[in-house]
Amino acid sequence: MDNILIQYQELTEKLKENLPLKTYPIRELVQIFRKNGHPITLKTELTIIDVINSGDISGIMCTIEGPDEYKMACGLTHLIFSKSSKFYGQIADYQKKRAKRIKQLNQTGLN
What we know:
By secondary structure, the chain is of the alpha+beta class. The chain has three helices and five strands; from the N terminus they run αβαββββα.
């Protein structure tokens, strides 16, 4: 598990050093924005303005800002990056591993 935490921290630091970053929402995030009165689409460009490593339970969290300056926090797994993004490969790898990790955490429970 220490290796996972080190990977989270390294990616968090790289992202933080390169803020702001442009990204797009996944469908569930679009629904949350809309529910809160901020109509966006899957093609709405969002800006990551802060990144924190919240550890193994929540992973890498981002503060994002919409076009109307509405801000909210979400997991890095709830964002889509352009393949031309500088960190696309590292983020895609994190997202894939994170999805497996969440499944593993859910199966083992909190006992």
